[in-house]
Structure formats: C-alpha cells, structure tokens
Fold:
Amino acid sequence: MDPKLVAMIGAAIAVSIGSIGPALAEGRAVAAAMDAIARQPEAAGTISRTLFVGLAMIETMAIYCLVIALLLLFANPYTG
Amino acid sequence: MHQASPLTSTVLFHVGPVTITRPVVTTWAIMLVLAVTSWLVTRRLQKRPDGRQALLEMLVTGTLAQIQDVIRKDPRPFLPLLGTLFIFLVAANLSGVLPGVEGPTGKLETPAALALIVFFSVHYFGVRAKGIRGYLASFAKPKLIMLPLNVLSELTRTFSLMLRLFGNIMSGEFIIALIIALAGLFVPIPLMALEILVGLVQAYIFTVLAAVFIGAAAGNAEEKKEVSWTRSSLR
Structure:
C-alpha cells in the first residue's frame, strides 16, 4: 500500500479512537463536579478550579492523539 | 500539503545564523504592546484611583487571590512570574483572532519556551523555599522507591504543559482554516468565538498549572499531605 494512504488512515484512527476515552472521562468529571456544586454551592470556586485543572489533564490524552496524527501527516519519515 | 504543516513556521529573515520566523516577530510585537501598555497604566498612580487604575488594581489583586488559593503561601514572590505568564498568554492566544496575525502559541516553539520557563522556575522556587538538600530530598518523599517516578513526572508534566497549549491553540486555528477553505465567509465566526473562549481558558489553565507545580515544589511543611498528592498525581 501507499505509505501516504496508510499514514492518513492511521491519523484518522488515532484521533477518532483516541478521543473516545477523554470524551467519556470529561463527561464523568463534569457530572461529578455538577453534583458536588449542587450539594455544596459555597465550595463552587474551589470545585470549578479543580475541575478546570482536571479537565486539562484529561484533555491532554486527546491532545497527544492529535499530535500523533499531526506527526503521521506532516513529519512522517516514511512518506518523505 | 507541506506548506500548510502546523509543525513548521514561515521564515521571515535571517540574523547571522539565526532564522527569525513569523511567531517570533509576533511575540516581539506582543511584548512591545504589553510593555508600553504597562508603562502607560502604571505611570501616575494615586491614592484615590481613577477608572484605569481601579481596573489595574482589580487585575493584580484578583491574580494575587488566585495564586494564594492555589499555593497557600504569601503570593507576592510568585506574582511577577505568574501574572506576566497569564497576561502574555491571554495576549498571545487572542492575537490569532486579529486578521493577518498568527498566534505565536499555535506554533510549537513558543509553548516549549514557556514550559521551559515554568520548568526552571519550579526548581528555583523549590530550592529557595527548602534549600538544595531539602528540595532534592523532597523527590524521594513518600518512599525512596518513588524517586525515578517523581523525576520522570517532572519531565512529562513539562512536556504535556507544552503540548496542551500548542495542541489546543493550533487545532483551533487549523479547524478555522479548514472551514474557511470548505465553506467560505461567515460560517467560521462561531468557531472563532469558541476559539476566543479556548484561548482564555488555556491561558488560565497554563497559569494555574504553573502555580500548582510551583506550589508543590515550594509548599509549606504543614501542607505536606496535599503537596505530595499534587506532585504524584499531576503529570
């Protein structure tokens, strides 16, 4: 097969499968934070700051997949 | 296809052996604008603030309160670094919205430089707070067997700090470019609004994470439990 075609398929698979996990995880994190804020509205500031930092951590996994896809497409040593 | 690669940047001119690219020139422009604006707004400070000074004081005290919340120490030694980081990141992330300007954080080099600054300042503040022996001993903190993991997490979290900023800003610009190529004039406007939000949130997250890392390195002795939590679980 043409290595460029393989690289494109690989990039698409990396992003599409790699974003499933972070999406589920972010949904769970936001739901838990909503629950916590509803129970304890006075702690909303601390909770939302921790939520933001945690979401950034989770999102990093999806960003890693994006970077892998970019490397496959634009900096691939095998496709020249 | 190679022209549009987000991993390379346009070379404008050369100074000796050093190539000057477009993001570097944009960074210089942002630095100039920020420096001149800071000089202008702090020029005539009074006891009884007018509107401009009230806004400035709100920004500074708000940043101080946020840093205090994260680090739980006197926030004033950390304000110059973290405040500058935040203001520069907001300006750099939002500069991509201006027509004809590419945000410098959408290229790999600027986030790498900022992450390196955070990496070294973490050690600086850690050594200043605990002394060299105390700081080095804090790497073997829960047990000696955690030493390689702690060292590794220092490196990976700097790397992920860089990639997070780069990935978010670059992917936003990339998607807007794709939509413009596909759909034309007014369709990408909602995405650009989203990109403004993402830029602000990423500036906030980068600064808060830098504060968390610095706080973990320079944390109080009585905060030990929480500090060890942040050090081992944030990568």
In short: Residues 216 and 226 of chain B are 8 Å apart (CA to CA).
